[in-house]
Amino acid sequence: MDINSDDLKTFITVIDSGTLSAASVHLGQTTSGVSRALSRLEDKLATSLLTRTTRRMELTEEGQLFLEKARAILGAMEEAEETIRIRRQKPAGRLCVDAASPFMLHCVVPHVAEFRALYPEIRLELSSNDQIADLIEHRTDIAIRIGALTDSTLHARALTSSPLYVLASPGYLERHGTPQTPADLARHSLLGFVQYEPGNQWPLRHADGNTWPVTPSISASSGETLRQLALEGQGIVCLADFMTRADIAAGRLVKILEADYTGYRQQIHAVYYRNTQLAQRISCFLEFLQQKL
Question: Following CA atoms 183, 186, 188, 194 in sequence, which dihedral angle do they give, to the nearest 10 degrees?
Answer without folding.
Answer: 120
